[in-house]
Specification:
The protein is of the alpha/beta class and about 550 residues long. Helices cover about 35% and strands about 20% of the residues.
């Protein structure tokens, strides 16, 4: 069967789907969490259709996998009130709890989370079309992220458990929470990326309103009970609905202290403008990127092709860290393209549960139309689709398209495609890709492929001031989670890594006193008798 023939018959009949994957499908999500109460919604609900379509002996059509509540503005504001009361200007139970006790709560949550792993992974696969294998990896990576965060918090607290004496001033410096956090994650990593803001926000003592992503809402249903039973009331509130209706009133209230958003700069900018006290609002944002690869003469082309294919097409390129434009030195572009096309056409594509599948249906509604428009625009302006069946569409499935030669007049040169369309350009002088990055609106990462240390060094120095991570002979990526993850320009605000995230969701606060006999006596008495949770020398092992 040719690639084109396989694409046209890619979607299964329902009876051909493995039975264990259809457990709980369709799932009617009626619960939501406000102020420590699991409530049942009997109002309007949003239907959820999977990127995986079905045929049922007809033309492919969307597959209904569930529904979730469409709560109202009033419910969002009720969740806000609950979070505000639970924080109580920093006097609430959670923000004043000792670090060891907050860690204990989170460890109990992880235990409960693991109990529902199977259901969460299954919903994740159905909702965003991610392969079952990668959905499982996302869950496991999230558990590891939580455990690593708790280990980092213990280290941070150990450092803070001692007193400093400078210039006859006694001081103890600790990190304190910021207040009420609004946490919103993306559809492409609806569990992991959402938790990279949610978890550090919680363990640092903030209270949180979580709005699950539009694509990736059902997977939170199995976790609601654990959130409800593990955390004090009002500390975590989970609401569902249309973001454009629910979120603006929250921001306009002025009661949100931190916006934790993984999404687009357009959304972030609109939300920030709605806050009446911008100087009181801290933003932790992971936004768009247009990460380039630069393939130099003398590069190991087999390695470069392997890394670029994975970098461009892991989860269909629906990642901010994906490689989204390839600059290849002119002398090797023909050989590179030949190898690259062969590698792309050899990728396994199909349904998320199939073994070894790489290319699956794209998650967003009407995404194939957007990608097709990018390809049409590029072709009209001189590009060729250099791989057979490139840009071929069947329902929600879009076969990867390699476009060459791309040029600055094309939309694909500037826009973040967030999908399996790969523009390739040739260059003679390395100043060309450097100039591209200088003038780009984005500044997350770059990948450099080469073997000449002098060549690579000459690129590293200018590029570290354009992006926040330079990868040598490897694709762009987020991990390991202990490394800083951020970006310049419109790509990020704040740094998300295990230790950095703890800092961005908190602020350094200190208690200080002149080194007098009276003050020594006061401080010693407070510490010895454990009268304060802040001013203390308890050491977490």
């Amino acid at each position: 069967m040719t690639i084109a023939e396989k694409i046209q018959t890619i979607f299964p009949r329902v009876i051909d789907i493995p039975e264990h994957l259809l457990k709980d499908i369709p799932f009617i999500q009626a619960g939501y969490l406000i102020n420590g109460e699991l409530r049942v919604w009997d109002g309007p609900r949003q239907q959820v259709f999977s990127p995986v379509w079905v045929t049922n002996n007809t033309d492919p059509e969307p597959f209904l996998i569930g529904e979730y509540p469409l709560l109202t503005e009033a419910h969002a504001l009720e969740a806000l009130d609950a979070a505000v009361v639970a924080y109580d200007h920093g006097r609430g139970l959670w923000p004043t709890l000792q670090v060891a006790d907050r860690i204990d709560h989170m460890e109990r949550f992880v235990f409960r989370m693991i109990e529902v792993k199977e259901q969460v992974v299954r919903f994740l696969m159905w909702e965003v079309g991610k392969s079952f294998q990668d959905s499982t990896k996302e869950f496991d990576r999230t558990v590891k992220y939580i455990n690593d965060t708790l280990a980092a918090l213990k280290d941070l607290d150990r450092t803070s458990s001692r007193f400093a004496i400078e210039e006859d001033i006694i001081g103890q410096i600790r990190r304190a929470p910021l207040g009420v956090v609004l946490s919103m994650g993306p559809f492409n990593y609806p569990l992991n990326e959402t938790f990279t803001t949610l978890i550090p926000a919680l363990v640092m003592g903030n209270t949180v309103i979580l709005k699950p992503p539009k694509h990736g809402a059902l997977l939170y249903a199995p976790l609601l009970e654990a959130f409800c039973q593990v955390f004090p009331k009002g500390v975590i509130n989970i609401v569902y609905g249309e973001g454009r209706k629910m979120i603006p009133p929250l921001m306009a209230s002025g009661k949100i202290n931190v916006l934790g958003l993984i999404g687009t700069s357009k959304t972030a900018n609109a939300l920030k403008k709605q806050h009446p006290h911008p100087n009181r609002l801290r933003c932790v944002l992971g936004l768009e990127a247009k990460n380039p690869a630069i393939v130099l003469n003398g590069a190991d082309l087999d390695l470069a092709v392997k890394e670029c294919v994975s970098g461009c097409l892991s989860f269909n390129g629906q990642r901010c860290t994906a490689l989204k434009i390839l600059f290849v030195q002119a002398d090797i572009v023909d050989v590179f393209l030949e190898k690259f096309v062969a590698a792309v056409n050899a990728l396994t594509f199909g349904m998320p549960w199939q073994e070894g599948v790489v290319i699956t249906p794209v998650a967003e509604k009407n995404k194939t139309d957007y990608l097709a428009a990018l390809v049409s625009d590029a072709v009209e302006l001189g590009a060729n689709i250099v791989n057979s069946s490139g840009a071929m569409v069947c329902g929600s499935f879009f076969f990867p398209a390699i476009l060459y030669p791309a040029n600055p007049e094309m939309r694909i040169y500037h826009e973040e495609q967030f999908g399996p369309v790969i523009p390739v350009l040739s260059f003679k002088n390395v100043s060309e890709p450097v100039d591209y990055m200088i003038h780009s609106n984005y500044g997350q990462q770059v990948s450099i492929f080469g073997t000449n240390p002098d060549q690579i060094a000459s690129l590293i120095d200018p590029l570290v001031n354009q992006v926040c991570r330079v990868n040598i002979n490897s694709q762009c990526q987020r991990g390991p989670d202990t490394f800083p993850f951020t970006g310049r320009k419109d790509s990020a605000e704040g740094t998300l890594s295990v230790s950095d995230a703890l800092r961005v969701f908190s602020i350094r606060t200190l208690v200080a006193a002149k080194q007098t006999d009276l003050n020594k006596k006061i401080i010693t008495g407070i510490v010895r008798d454990r009268k304060s949770k802040f001013l203390a020398t308890d050491f977490i092992l």
